[in-house]
Amino acid sequence: MRALPRRALLAAxxxxxxxxxxACGGSDSGSDNAKAADTQQAxxxxxxxxxxxxxxxxxxxEPPLTGDIKQKAEAAALAKYPGTVVKSEEDAEKPGMYAVxxxxxxxxxxxxxxxxxxxxxxxxxxxxxxxEDAG
Length: 135
Prior knowledge:
The protein has helices spanning 3-24, 28-54, 67-80; strands at residues 84-90, 98-103, 109-114, 120-125, 132-133. The chain is 47% helix and 20% strand. The chain has a five-stranded antiparallel beta sheet with strand order 1-2-3-4-5, covered by helices on one side. It has three helices and five strands; from the N terminus they run H-H-H-E-E-E-E-E.
């Protein structure tokens, strides 16, 4: 019987320490992790703002085009705006549309928007907010 109270006396400081750590929110490394998470969150918000300025609003992911759809969309965009395809994807800002980014010979990039029948419906020069009429 005497061994039980001795164990209890040894366990009591450990229990107090655990309670204190839990009440304080963990160890110092935990607060470093919280600071790092806050920093990453702030950087993410800044990046989202910059991405919004570049035209990727609402942080929606735009799935890349593949297969036959990719070939047809890129061919239609290049027929109207010759250059090199940088990327082609479904357009999250305009559901039901495709977006193909073309780097032109002069070094500028243009985003070409196409409907499901691969008809060019709109364009946007990269780095600008205003849309140009596809004409």
